[in-house]
Amino acid sequence: MRLIFKIIIAALLACFFALPSHAQGPSDAQLASQYYQSGEYDKALIYYDKLYEKQPNDFYYEYLLKCYMQMEDYKGGEKLVKKHLKMFNLPKYKVDLGVIYEAMQNTSRAKQLYDKTIKNLEADQQQIIQLANAFMAKGKNNYALQTYLKARKLIKHYPYNIEIARIYAAQRKHDEMIKEYVSLLEVNPSYQVTVQNALLNTISFENNSKESQLLKTELIKLNQKHPSRKIYAEMLIWVYIQQKNFNGALIQAKALDKRLNEDGTRVVHLAEIANTNKEYDIAVKAFNYVIEKGNSNYFYIDAKMSLLKCLQSKITSTPDYTEQDLVTLETRYNETIEELGKSFQTAPIIRELAQLQVYYLDKLEEGIGTLEELLTLRNIDSHLKAQCKLDLGDFLVIKDEIWDASLYYSQVDKDFKYDVLGQMAKFKRAKIWYYAGQFKRAKGELDVLKGSTSKLIANDALWLSNLITDNTGIDTTEIPMQYFAKADLLIMQNKDSAALMTLDSINADYPGHSLTDDILYLKYEMFYKRQKFDRAKGYLEQIIEKHSDDILADNALFKLAELYQFVYKDEQKAMEHYQSLLFDHKGSLFNVEARKRFRELRGDKIN
Fold first, then answer.
1. 525 burial class (0-12, 13-18, 19+ CB within 10 angstroms)?
2. pTM for the full model?
3. Per the structure, how many domains does the chain have?
4. I need a labelling partner for 12 at 20 to 30 A (CA). Which of 25, 101, 182, 556 fits?
5. What is the pLDDT of residues 489-505, one digit of tens each?
């Protein structure tokens, strides 16, 4: 007990003697900072001066100099800079001295100092960069430029193009900037990506801007002058792509491919970019160019397969495609598969053929047979095989064999439990329960999926779960919800007339039901899927007009804006609806994308 008492006393004494150190006031550095932040520069100067005397580093020097300048004590500032120069003798401090002379209205003396400092520069890269940065920090870009031009003469192995180009960019001298970047590529083509990134951050490529035209002209001139240097042709292709001039890019890519006797690598790459940008005609030309090189070419099979996917996208994205367009495309798929054979390599286009048969040609049984045969092939990628099972499940739902479909979904869920594919399978299986009117079981699976790593799946699960919750329960009859789910299934099965009759029966039997806006939105989705855009638009307008306070109002505004932007090509109307969404639905999940599209349509430069 006595030992414990002694330990406690010792601890108390230790705390007591430690108190003075904690009770000390703020340090000189803290006081200096506090006085400076509050604008009491005379008091801050006293403490910074004390700190500088103890430790004459750049940090205390800079704050001490700022205090002198704020107080307009230029003599004191001059004395400090000369003292610091005497200790460290670095050219960058002479910029501070010149600024003081300018503040004292002695601009000629400042100019002489700047000129002499640049003239006396030595071949020391660190000092050169420090001096140029010091000039730029004071807004003296011309002197920074002179510094680098002098350095270019002193140091032969490094031409300072990037640094000089950045200064020209700051001065908005884009023609000089472009020449610096392009000449750097002549010195070292490995800087290509660096130059491209710098140009993207400096000039606009939209609407064939003056700056992008200057760049293109310079590259064309150099490409003609130095045809053996492929870097200029590659940069020219890149410029055309940025300008969305894919035809110009293709001409250059083909010319370079022929000049260098290549295998079509860059043309295939361009075709993929054009396809992504929905420039399908250019992509088709590019893929055909590679195919024409013959079946011994490395990219022959890839180009053949990619061409089919491109053609399918081109046809199905066109509102007025014909039945004959689809039949011709199906023939091309079959011919290509026959030529290349059925194997793990051609499995992707076999899957695409099945989707074409089911979703566009109304050949459900043929599509199912195509996929079933595909699943028997050896060495198919496991992810592709799982995607085919999901497709097959969807086809069986269309065939009204929903429980057989559920088996395929369960297989994928089991094999890819922690993958997005497994989560998609679980969502599709939940929809089976939903279609069957077993809402409690469907909601159980949907609630788990709210935490999906896929934002799309999580949002879809959340929406369907809320739909079920809002329209079922102890005090709510489930009959309208059962009709709604049945109509949803009928739409997937392409039974539009039956779906519309079912949806209309809800409105007739249960007028004013909470499903009213959901019914309108489901009708919109059905007619949009069938590319009957005027009918689809009408349902969105009804939601906005009659259900502006309901949960689907922001969806309707966003989808209506999309219709005007991408289908009707009415940018002004699209902007109006994106803007309405941003103002009237500030918490909408669509706001980020709506803001981005609004700014793009307005012509803002988006980095």
1. middle
2. 0.81
3. 1
4. 25
5. 999 999 999 999 999 99
